[in-house]
Structure formats: structure tokens, C-alpha cells
Amino acid sequence: MTTTDAQLIAELRDLRDRVVGVTDVLVASADGLLITAETDRAVDAEALAALTAAALGVARRTGALAGRGLLDHASARFTGGCLTAHAIGETALIGVLGDAGTDLGRLNTEARASAERIGGLLTGAPAAPVVPAPVVPAPPAHPTTTHAPAPEGAR
Amino acid sequence: MSEIAVPGRAGLGFARILTGTPRELISGTLLVAGDPGGAIHLRNGAIAEVASPGAPGVDTLLLRSGRIGEADWAAALRRGADAEGVGAELVSRDLVGVAELQLLCEMAALDGALAVGLGRIDGVTLDPEVCAARLAAPHGIEPEWLLQEAERRIRALGSRGPALSPFRDRPVRTAAATALLEGAGAVTGERREILLRTDGRRSARDIAFLLGRSLYAVTVELSRLLAEGLLERAAAAGAEPAGNEGTSPEAPPDRPAPPDRPAGLPHRRPGASGITDVLPVPPVAGHWRPSAALIARYRARHEARVGTHDAPDGTHGTPGTGGL
Q1: Residues 57-76 in A contacting B (C-alpha not used; CB under 8 Å)
Q2: What segments bear the compositional bias annotation Pro residues (chain A) (predicted)?
């Protein structure tokens, strides 16, 4: 494992520690090829990377079609958890799975910060230091019946 | 909205404002900032719900334990217009009785208060306007009872042998536990279920959500297993969890396919599409790096954004994110 790989894994584990409820995190190229992942053994990280990229692509296309500008992230909430995907520039993405208790708002704040640092690692630029985001109380969102990743925050 | 400063890292002092204020005066939501924090929903002085990311709510207890099906839950959510409506809908569909629902709500609220009290509390804000409970207890919950019971449980956890954080500690099975699990009938019931799910990646809170069990019960069981030498603490954050390395395409782990993956789901393999032969991007296998052109574009976009952050009005500046 190279230094960058170790730094990527450390960043993914740090995200799990910062946000209660995060179960799996992965980094993939924009076309869905897995770069690295910190996932449970029961999760097929390569399939998850491909589907996350597809969800992000659908959200991006939808935003473009509706004239909503550049995509920041796409989130979906299920009865048993949530998925959020953040674009890292135009070349990569970060996908995060959380369980039913995950505070999706906080997760998106922290995932964006992680995506910025991972972007720096992938491009070889010096990584920004970890700055804890302010903790804002927010009750868990309502579980919905959404069973497919649905674009939420295209802008 | 009023702000109430709460000193100290943990504790349930905030809950005393519930008992020190005349009844029928407090309705709304008490938002507890912290890690994991939470929200206490109040109606006419009684607690309707305590929701926290640190403990399973009634929905998780019902769904993950298999008590009700996801389709039934989704239908009840659609039909129930508000927090009372969801509970009433569950009862009217004979999915759960009123007494059982009240008990479940009390247990979940107690677990939520436990999670809030065991975690870090940064402050408390009372929003008297909104009571945004997801599923309110049919008969409300006595704040005095909740406070006393939550304090008792926090003390009980503190007095146990090895201290175990339900959020930070991610214990891993020892060789003795693995041998015990393989022996027929040696470990059964909830203890076995919990032991099977301790893999160095999951905290007590994660296992509670996974099984749809109480945070308190899972934390107590993990503490017992730790004391019996069947579990040990995993390495600190940032180190490799024992027996469960991060996956990467460069070193694919030898693991079986997920048993519940639907047949026919597209399963991409690096390089299978041949796209890497067409695009000027090195294959992912090996040390992935974007092309020089992509790096230049990414840096140019980032610098443009940093320039925006440094604008004189300073409204968009975010410390620590300008190092790319």
C-alpha cells in the first residue's frame, strides 16, 4: 500500500469516526471504477462504486436539463439508511452509506470536507488540515420509501 | 428560541429543566447539540419522543427486528398525517397494540436519552414552536421517570468493569470467541447475534441499529464479553481493523459474494469495458492518477473557487480548505 493509499484509507476511516452512523465509504473514479473503499465485507464495493457513479451521473444530467447548474452531491434516504455521493472535481467521487440513525445533513457537511481533502490526495496537492465542522443538532430525517438513489441537491 | 448553556462534557443536567418547569408550559423541541446529540420532542410538558443518531428509534426497533414489514411501515407513514397519526395508523392496522407501542416508545426514548447523556453535549436550545416528533408516544412519557432511569443506566454502565464507549469503541472478537462460535450451541440467542457482528468496524451503537435492539442492552452485553475475554478493543482510529482491511482494487480481498445481492445486478470489473484502452487515463489497478490535463483543470477550478472564498466580504471563506 502506497502512502497515498494509506492516506485515503485513513481519511475514509476518519469520516466514519466523525459522523455517527456511517457504515461504508468509498472513493471511485467519475466513471465508477473503484479506487479505494472502507466497507463492510457484506458490501460489494465495486458494484457500489459503479452504481454510485451512475446515481451521481443521473443527478448531474437532471440538474443540467433543469438548468440548475453544477452538481455538488446527490443523496437518497431509505427505510434502513441513506446514501450520499459527492463529486470530487470532474474526475472522481466519494460515496457514503449510513444506517437509519445517520444525520444526513451533518453527513453531507462532513463528506464535502472529506471530498475536498481526498481531491487533494488524488491530485497530489497538499491536503488541507482537518477542521471539525460545527455540530448542529438535527434529528434524523424521516425514513422514506425511496428505494432508488434519487437526486436531491443538484445545483 | 432560548439558549441554555450546559457545562461539562456529558450529563443529563439539561433534562432538569423539564422537571423544574410547570407542566403544560413546555411544548416544542429541545435540541441538544453535541456528539451524537439529539432532539427531545415535548407536548404539554410530557415527552413525545427522544430522537438521537446515537440510539435506534421506534422505527428501527420495529423494522430491523422484523416486528413489522417495510411495506407496512411505509404505508403507515403515508397515511399518518402527523406523529400521532403514524402510531394510530400502526394500531388501526393491527401491526402493534397501543400498550406495546407505548412501551416501545418509552424504551426508545430512554435509549435516546442515554445516548445523548453518554455523548458530548455542547449546548441545548429550546424551540417552543415546533414539536417535530416522528412517532409520538400515545400517552406521553413522564420526564421525571425518564431522567431517573437514564441516570440510573448511565451509572450502571459506568460501574461495569471495562469502560466501553458505545460510540467510539469498536471491539473485535478474540480467537477464543471465534472458537466458541464454531462450537455447536455454545453461544446462543442475542449474545451470539451480537458476537457475530463484532468485527472491529462496528461500535455498540452500530450493532444496536443493525439488530434493532436497545443501545443499553447491546452496550451491557459487549461490556460483559469484553470482561470475559471474548472481545478486545480494536486498534485506534486510522489503524487497520483486525481481520477487516479496507478494500481496494489493487489487493482484492478473498471474500464471498454478498448473499443477498440480486442476481443479474451489473458487476463491473476494472478494465473489463476496455475504456482504459481508449481514454488517456491509466488503469485503476496500480497507482491511479488523473492525467496531467485533468489535474490542471481541477487545480484551475479549485484556485478559482479559493479566489471566491478570499473575496473581501469573507462570507464564503472556509478555514482549512484552501490547501489544494
Answers
A1: none
A2: 133-142
A29 in reach of chain B (CB within 8 A): yes
Query: Is A101 in contact with B209 (CB distance < 8 Å)?
Result: yes
For residue B320, the model assigns a pLDDT of 35
Complex ipTM more than 0.85, yes or no: no
Structural domain boundaries in chain A = 3-124
User: Who has greater pLDDT, B220 or A131?
Assistant: B220
For residues B74 and B216, the model is more confident at B216
For A3-124, which CATH superfamily applies?
Dynein light chain 2a, cytoplasmic (3.30.450.30)
| H or E segment to which residue B212 belongs | none
- Contact between chains at A103 and B53 (C-beta distance less than 8 A): yes
Residues B76-94, mean pLDDT to the nearest whole number: 83
DSSP β-ladder status, A71-78 and A81-88: antiparallel
| A23-51 mean pLDDT | 94
